[in-house]
Amino acid sequence: MPQPEQYPPLLSLAVHELRTPASVVGGYLRMLQKDLGDPLSERQRKMIDEAEKSCARLVALIAELSDISKLDAGLTPLGKQPIDVFSLVAEVAEHVHEAKDRDVRLEVRGDGTAPAVGDAVRLRSAFDAIFRAILREKGGPCTVIADRRRITEGGRPAAVVVVAEDRHVQSAYDRAPGAFDEKRGGLGLALPLARRVIEGHGGRIWSPAPNGDDDQMARGAAIVWLPVTESTR
Asked: Of 45, 58, 128, 223, which is most buried, counting CB atoms within 10 Å of its CB?
């Protein structure tokens, strides 16, 4: 059985071996879509279009696998630009409409600023994945809140973002921390990447610990903690 230190090289090799055939298949499918020779039937074109979409998804997954491999191996340095975590959260939330068809809304609450140093591009992707994961859990009309809080923990200032249904925000924050489930369909490897990016900034992510065998509140909430660069006082 491979040891933990062997996984980054193994992932890198898998990415290398998968990327070439996936790119070739995608290239040929795109050529068929543009072929001006014998016309394709509507059924054939639909099949090719669907195959090309699936191939593009495979290529995207391979790229995410490559990112994970590089982060785990320490080959991808995170940016160190001045950012405001709370402003970044608001910017991301404005463009997330994952469950709008089910009348699930995402609102941002909390005032103030949370200055930090970090990789704005990767943190935006991380919060986008987290928001979409939580919204996908909601089956019907509700309001999900991204509640922004400044705290001091052990003398250390931090920014906390609680993502949960309006009625569950405080209880999600108060409950003992549990594991954040990264194995959610339809999101590829976006959540494992998000966790690595947050931890790479000295932060952490968790969900409320389950309270019972069927606790949807725990799965439908996430709490992100990130250090900030100035005191809350």
From this structure: 223
95 and 113 co-located in one domain = yes
Give the domain range for residue 53. 4-72
Domain containing 180 — which CATH number?
A: 3.30.565.10
Copy the structure tokens of residue 100: 């709008």
Q: What are the start-end ranges of the H helices in 73-136?
A: 85-94, 120-136
Percent of the chain with pLDDT over 70: 92
CA distances 60 to 8, 18, 64, 217, Å, are 18, 11, 6, 31
User: Is the distance from CB of 162 to CB of 38 less than 8 angstroms?
Assistant: no
In a domain, 207, yes or no: yes
Look at residues 220, 84, 225, 97 and name the one whose alpha carbon lies nearest to residue 163: 220
Distance, CA of 189 to CA of 133 (rounded, Å): 12
Report the number of distinct structural domains present in the chain: 2
Measuring CA to CA, which residue among 204, 147, 150 is closest to residue 177?
Answer: 204
For residue 2, what pLDDT band results from cuts at 50, 70 and 90? very low
